[in-house]
Amino acid sequence: MIVASMVDVVKRYGKLQALDHVSLSIRKGEILGLLGPNGAGKTTAIRVLAGLIGADSGEIMLRGERQDVNNIRLKQHMGLVTQEVTIFEELTAEENLRFFGGLYGVKGELLRRRVKETLEFVGLSEYAKKEPGKFSGGMQRRLNIACALVHSPDFLIMDEPTVGIDPQSRNYILESVRCLAQNGTTVLYTSHYMEEVQAIADRIVIMDQGRVIADGTLEELIGRIQHEETIRITVTNPSSALTESFRAIQGVKTVTQKGADYTIVSGASSGNLNRVLAVAQQSGGVSNMAADKPTLEDVFLTLTGKKLRDGEASA
Amino acid sequence: MTIFRFALMRGLRKKSMFAALFAVPLAMIFIRPLWTPENGAGFVFYGMVILFAAFSLVRLIMTDRVSGTIVRIFAAPVTTFQYLSQNLLAYWLILGIQTVVMVAVGAMLYEWGIEMAAQLILCYTVFAVASIALSLAWTSLFRSKVISDAVFSIVVSFMALLGGIFIPLSMLPDILRKIGMLFPTYWFSNSLLGIRDGAASREYWLSLLIMLLLSAASLLYGSKRRLE
Ligand SMILES: Nc1ncnc2c1ncn2[C@@H]1O[C@H](COP(=O)(O)OP(=O)(O)O)[C@@H](O)[C@H]1O
Ligand SMILES: [Mg+2]
């Protein structure tokens, strides 16, 4: 079942086309990873989807209804974790949650219980009565997430929820997202960190310069690209003759040697792993061997001709 | 009513607000020379206190916008009208309570009659509406709080000058008086003159009406800005 979808959505800021005919859909109960470098249009896509800004053209559907800036009702079931930490510094953690819960009409005993549960969920129970101005970056991020969860949304949109925090808090957050998804919450998870998206998403949409350039599961995406194979091998008897033998294998592009360690790059789907192993064994033996698996980074590189991190630098 | 409740809470909690809302006005009211009927500088000065208190309250809305919290508020089922009206009403209530306390203390200390007290309260609360509306329009022009604050203090000084806060309106050159008429401060001090002439004059009611019209215009203008 489709929870939300965008079809051919265009959004311009003046001359800049921030969304260029974007189409994507989110299925019930999945974690959809939206990956793209800074400036790709992820936040804009989210804002249009959440009905915060209008699109210039295209159709946005949520729960079978047309999304629109004035459609207040659709917002009831949605939670938005903003890219910036958007909490009130002069209110305590608990008051922040009470405020955002209250906006969704949660009140009384239910509000009290949800505030308590949500603080526990993000590990901030001890800090309920503290003002977030003094929190660490990771704690503020967790409160930022909690504020979108008090009203138990069934569709959660997270816009780069882990930017600029320590690995421990990041793992905590990723674990929480998995836990939410297991309990039936549909999650749209946006990030420019491919490792995160790779680790957490059931399905992935890759955006660049306002366009969706690929979507599918991790396996589908990787299967789609023609990828170079990189083999790292450590031999017992390194020699220049062996280097030459590696070079002679069909499809091998480069061979670099560093002591007993060789790095051998072959063209796409050359299936050279076994051949390399055979050659190495003939000349004495192998003490270690590994083949690099292609990653989302490679997918992005193949599709756009640039690295994800280049996009980051130019944003 | 969540927004209204939290607007009250945030408004009263800020420490800088405490001075503008309680310390300064209460210190003022006990300075007898400020409140003599002939030289009633206190009456107009208190208007400036209201204006600055209104500005620092409305700054909370600007803070929401600049910090991006507004994005999250509008991601919830909340309309622009609900957001603005509940915030502004809370600010107005805070200023209104302050005014009532001030005038009540003043009435006891200086034997203002009940009629004068009522006219003062009405005049100050209408000016509070105008101050809130003006501050909203003002802050909607800026992206940076620092610049907004700095330019506001300068502009308010001019408004105060043209509005007869430092110099009586009757002593201003005609051309400056005419410019002053564009701002609520002018009509505010004009309405105070209307009170001190005895029973509320036509001037008084007219001034209140013009303040309300200026407020409506500022509110319309200031409520257009939504995100960012
Ligand atoms: N309010 C705005 N006005 C003008 N340009 C904007 C605005 N918001 C975003 N942009 C531009 O739109 C493009 C996409 O931005 P954004 O959606 O924030 O990307 P991402 O979230 O993927 O980093 C960027 O080039 C950005 O500069
Ligand atoms: Mg973004």
Describe this structure in words.
The complex is a heterodimer of chains A (315) and B (228). By secondary structure, chain A is of the alpha/beta class. Chain A folds into two domains: 2-223, Rossmann fold (3-Layer(aba) Sandwich), CATH 3.40.50; 228-293, Alpha-Beta Plaits, CATH 3.30.70.260. Chain A is 34% helix and 29% strand. Chain A has eleven helices and 14 strands. In chain A, strands 6-7-8-3-9-10 form a six-stranded mixed beta sheet, with helices on both faces. In chain A, a hairpin with a 2-residue loop joins strand 4 and strand 5 (65-66). The longest helix of chain A is centred in the middle third of the chain and has 16 residues, at 167-182. Chain A is elongated, with a radius of gyration of 24 Å. Chain B is an all-alpha fold and 228 residues long. Chain B has one domain (2-225). Helix content of chain B is 78%, strand content 0%. Chain B contains ten helices and no strands. In chain B, helix 2 packs parallel to helix 5, helix 3 (41-67) runs parallel beside helix 6 (114-139) and helix 6 packs antiparallel against helix 9 (184-196). Chain B is globular and about 55 Å long. At the A-B interface, strand 6 and helix 2 of A face helix 1 and helix 4 of B. The complex binds adenosine-5'-diphosphate and magnesium ion (MG). Magnesium ion binds next to helix 1 of chain A.
